[in-house]
Amino acid sequence: MTINLSFYTTEGCHLCEEAIVVLQKLLTEQPEEYQIELIDIVQSDDLVARYGSRIPVIAKQGDRAGLGWPFDYPLLLSYVGAS
């Protein structure tokens, strides 16, 4: 079963670029397990209000809070429930 994750980001975010490296490791090590949708928060005033000061944020389906930066690979694994 694939776990869907949302990655809240925006163009020009240097912290988001660092987070992408962590997410790429997850996808490299467990490509069948996870699907990540990149969402640019600039497209929605609600998303800017919710995540603007916290991006990058990775969120499991149904989790509005998500895991905000800073996070490393072990913390990401713990958040997504990887074994």
Q: Can you give me a brief rundown of this structure?
A:
This protein has helices at 14-29, 45-51, 73-80; strands at 3-9, 34-40, 57-60, 67-68. With 83 residues, it is of the alpha+beta class.
Count of distinct strands: 4
SSE order: EHEHEEH
Please name the fourth-level CATH homologous superfamily. Answer: Glutaredoxin
Total of domains: 1
Q: What number is the mean pLDDT?
A: 93
Level-1 CATH class name? Alpha Beta
Q: Share of helix among residues?
A: 25-40%
**In angstroms, what separates the terminal alpha carbons?**
14 Å
Task: Explain what you see.
The protein is an alpha+beta fold. The chain has one domain (3-80): Glutaredoxin (3-Layer(aba) Sandwich). 37% of the residues lie in helices and 24% in strands. It is built from 3 helices and 4 strands. It has helices spanning 14-29, 45-51, 73-80; strands at residues 3-9, 34-40, 57-60, 67-68. It has a 4-stranded mixed β-sheet, covered by helices on one side. The longest helix is centred in the first third of the chain and has 16 residues, at 14-29. It starts with a strand and ends with a helix.
List key phrases describing it.
alpha+beta; 83 residues; globular; Glutaredoxin
What's the SSE blueprint?
Blueprint: E1 3-9, H1 14-29, E2 34-40, H2 45-51, E3 57-60, E4 67-68, H3 73-80
